[in-house]
Design brief:
Largest sheet: 7 strands, mixed
Number of strands: 9
Strand order of the largest sheet: 3-2-4-5-1-8-9
Radius of gyration: 16 Å
Low-confidence stretches: none
Shape: globular
Helix content: 25-40%
Structural class: alpha/beta
Order of helices and strands: EHEHEHEHHEHEHEEE
CATH superfamily: Class I glutamine amidotransferase (GATase) domain
CATH architecture: 3-Layer(aba) Sandwich
Number of helices: 7
Distance between the termini: 18 Å
Number of domains: 1
């Protein structure tokens, strides 16, 4: 299993992403965490990922989970043509809902756990790899799933790592008061977690987990 989980994009060291993906190649960009945004903003959120990825030598192409609702077989076939996937931030609960509706949660878990696909995600894209999304509601509104016709809220993450992830911690300009409330909740509930600043990434490859 190869994972690159960051607070914001590549963190301070893009070479770690390249190590996880074993060099640049075709990368599927999933931007469904922004599915409740106005259409122009969502389109911009996709194209804003392409430039930085191309700068590292990747060939990005969007894979929209909305094109595969109820079609996990089609999604699997689509993702199988890529060597890695890049999942951008937005609303974690919206992203989780779209993964459930498309079967992407099961498909990605299989492809990632077998090593067929390297997974990279930041913010919401990192948070879904965890055992639980509880505590993230202080920054992300769970009720946003109603705007995409989904529900009830899925509170379970994909469980690829055994820690909750709190992005935009420390002095991140992307952080808000909800980050501190999330940290307080996780401590109170004795849920193991890692708090990531925007320079940080949790990297998992063939060796032990490494936070950089």
């Amino acid at each position: 299993m190869r994972l690159f989980l960051s607070s914001y994009r590549f963190g301070s060291d893009p070479s770690r992403l390249l190590q996880v993906t074993r060099g640049p190649g075709r990368v599927a960009v999933i931007a469904n965490a922004g599915d409740t945004w106005p259409s122009r903003a969502r389109e911009s959120s996709v194209t804003s990922e392409f430039g930085p990825l191309r700068g590292l030598g990747y060939e990005p192409e969007e894979v929209d989970l909305r094109d595969h609702l109820g079609d996990p077989g089609g999604l699997r076939a689509r993702l199988a043509t890529f060597s890695s996937v890049w999942v951008r931030g937005g609303n974690t609960f919206v992203l989780r809902a779209q993964l459930a509706r498309s079967g992407g949660d099961t498909v990605l878990t299989d492809l990632v756990r077998t090593g067929a696909l390297a997974y990279a995600g930041y913010s919401a894209g990192a948070c879904i790899a965890t055992p639980t999304l509880k505590g993230l509601e202080f920054s992300d509104d769970p009720d946003k799933v109603l705007e995409i016709g989904a529900g009830p809220v899925v509170w379970d993450g994909l469980g690829w790592v055994d820690l909750a992830i709190v992005p935009h911690a420390g002095d991140s300009v992307l952080g808000d008061d909800g980050v501190d409330r999330t940290l307080e909740y996780l401590r109170r509930e004795s849920i193991p977690f890692v708090a990531l600043g925007d320079d940080d990434a949790l990297v998992i490859g063939t060796d032990d987990p490494d936070r950089m």
